[in-house]
Hints:
This is Ketoreductase domain-containing protein. InterPro entries: KR_dom, NAD(P)-bd_dom_sf, Sc_DH/Rdtase_CS, SDR_fam. β4 (85-88), α4 (103-131) and β5 (134-139) form a beta-alpha-beta unit. The model has no long low-confidence stretch (mean pLDDT 97). The protein is globular, with a radius of gyration of 17 Å. It starts with 6 loop residues before the first strand and ends in a 6-residue tail after the last strand. α1 (16-27) packs across α7 (216-227) and α3 (66-79) runs parallel beside α4 (103-131). It has a seven-stranded parallel sheet, sandwiched between helices. The chain has one domain (7-238): NAD(P)-binding Rossmann-like Domain (Rossmann fold, 3-Layer(aba) Sandwich), CATH 3.40.50. It has helices spanning 16-27, 39-51, 66-79, 103-131, 152-176, 199-204, 216-227; strands at residues 7-11, 31-36, 55-60, 85-88, 134-139, 178-185, 237-240. The protein is an alpha/beta fold. Residues 11-12, 14-18, 36-38, 62-64, 89-93, 112, 139, 141, 185, 187-188, 190-192 line the site of NADPH dihydro-nicotinamide-adenine-dinucleotide phosphate (NDP). The site of NADPH dihydro-nicotinamide-adenine-dinucleotide phosphate has 27 residues, from α1.
Amino acid sequence: MSLQNKNIIVTGASSGIGEATAKTLAKAGANVVLTARRTDRLKELKDTIEKDGGKALVITADVTSKDDWKDVIEQTHKTFGKVDVLVNNAGLMPLSFIENLKVDEWDKMVDVNIKGVLNGVASVVPDMKEQKSGHIINISSVAGRKIMPAGAVYCATKYAVRALSEGIRLEMGPKYNTKVTSIEPGFVSTELTDTITDEDVKDMMSQFEDLTPLQAQDIADSIYYALTQPEHSSVNEILIRPTNQE
Ligand code: NDP
């Protein structure tokens, strides 16, 4: 399936996987809507995409804000038309040991990684119902399949994203011809670990030093694959790890 002139919203487009995905999809001819909180980064990305001949719209938005989502949908409709694809990518990973009681960080992870994803789904489902087509890509993780120490809450959010993806697929696939894909990366070299504040976890992270991590582009390529399969083929899950990750 071609992405030419498809209208695609990418959350968390200001860095890492979201940024690489937006570039890749724009190069394939999609109109990309770049959302995140850091407007300066989004503007730089828009410039890069437009220099390469692509089309992009910047909308500063926090995925936890329903008002921001309303704005994202209104501006997308005005500039490009109906939403064809949502890449629900924004997320945080402040890993911590439960006994260190980083309760505010637990709340933030639930708000961004679960409620943020749901806000996105609620915002695009009306267009997909009306068009009887669409594709929702949710970024889960290997952490949505395997629980790790210091990851109780993060893993819970990523298990939730996988469960939501399958639940939404079951309803929206048969009735509204809408595809849902859960992307489940292992360790990817991005800014994600910058949100870790628990000193005990920072020590633990040294065990990943020998890994050859995935690059954000590897995940963008997986997303591109899922989005470009023929109409009748719905890629439900992609699990992708660095070759030397356990
Ligand atoms: P980055 O830290 O590079 O990107 C995270 C993105 O999320 C940023 O663009 C950030 O933008 C955005 N974001 C965070 N909070 C909010 C918010 N409240 N509202 C809107 N945007 C927000 O990390 P990655 O690219 O690695 O992460 C992308 C996704 O991939 C996440 O869901 C992560 O859990 C998942 N993942 C990552 C893995 C890895 O090893 N890196 C492995 C498996 C899954 P801004 O700060 O500008 O708002």
